[in-house]
Amino acid sequence: MARLAQTAGLTDVQQEILSTVRDFVDKEIIPVATGLEHRDEYPQQIVDGLKELGLFGLMIPEEYGGLGESLLTYALCVEEIARGWMSVSGIINTHFIVAYMLKQHGTQEQKDHFLPRMAAGDVRGAFSMSEPGLGSDVSAITSKAVKDGDEYVLNGQKMWLTNGGTSSLVAVLVRSDEGHPEGTAPHRSMTTFLVEKEPGFGEVRPGLTIPGKIDKMGYKGVDTTELIMDGLRVPADRVLGGVTGRGFYQMMDGVEVGRVNVAARGCGVAQRAFELGVQYAQQRHTFGKPIAQHQAIQFKLAEMATKVEAAHAMMVNAARKKDSGERNDLEAGMAKHLASEYCKEVVEDAFRIHGGYGFSKEYEIERLYREAPMLLIGEGTAEIQKMIIGRRLLEEYRFQG
């Protein structure tokens, strides 16, 4: 039988990369993921392996020491990694969003300074938009930067930083009224700062504190944190792109990449849930035969596989649209929405197939059942995706009356 979620039209290089990543996942991630997840332990050995494979530089141009691969290649690698353990894909996702923003919007000095070390995995990236009272309303950001000579002074509290502790570079979005008169639209008075710090928790540089890991239902292993700025001084040359007021657009460009990533994660988790479900259905016997021979279970497997295929196709389409240089917010929103919803449904069906054993921590599906909900909110909730999709559809199908 052909494996689910195959991608047509890949180059030999792309196929070789994916084969290497798939082998790594099968040998180095799947056997240890559940144990690490139950201990909420950072997967340092796995991360070191990804570094050796060059995956931290996958999309970074060759001139900066990266592999110069496409978003599609990256998304397919993320799909494979999430099939092993979604938390690992989160570790590289935020790193790549920051690297992508630097590549697209950074000054030449910023690219030369950061990208070679990011490609090597020696500098790990995190990005920070959300705040404790913010939710999906990015325009309500209250963290602020005030110009003071050749520096900016940043104050405020940020929330939900993936890699908050382990990263050494954080792209932080704050309000910056300097040069933007009162009454300027909120999204035109935001700036992204490139904040360098020491990995770890506590005060990681003067004026910057990472309090500790947030305890989560799932998505464990990877550190999710707050970030508190209290008189944090950042040089003016660490404004992303060198010009204030562009931060919102830079972040949204990065989030489009992030939404393709979340879609890929959903595809990977759904694939693993299907694999677990179809295997268990052939091993578990009831009424004198494997439960896979019961029509009710076959119907579930058919629906699960169809959802895996559909989500994968939409994710690939969104990645290829971005790679072509075209606007892809519609496709990325659709892919993220569909893949995250289908992932939840496929995981739940696999959980049901496992019966009572699915509730046991001895079975991998229990971990997936706790991980899938994060994809419903990460990189924008389903409701936000529907707003984006609806607005774009009205642009494309504007009634001429």
Summarize the structure.
The chain has helices spanning 12-39, 44-53, 71-84, 86-105, 108-119, 247-283, 295-323, 329-354, 364-377, 382-396; strands spanning 125-128, 144-148, 151-162, 169-175, 190-196, 202-205, 208-210, 224-235, 285-286, 289-290.
Walk me through the structure:
- With 401 residues, this protein is α+β, with helices and mostly antiparallel strands.
- It contains 10 helices and 10 strands.
- The strands form 3 sheets. It has a 5-stranded antiparallel sheet with strand order 2-3-8-7-6, with helices on one face. Strands 1-4-5 form a 3-stranded mixed sheet.
- Helix 3 packs antiparallel against helix 4 (86-105) and helix 4 runs antiparallel to helix 6.
- The longest helix is centred in the middle third of the chain and has 37 residues, at 247-283.
- The model has no long low-confidence stretch (mean pLDDT 93).
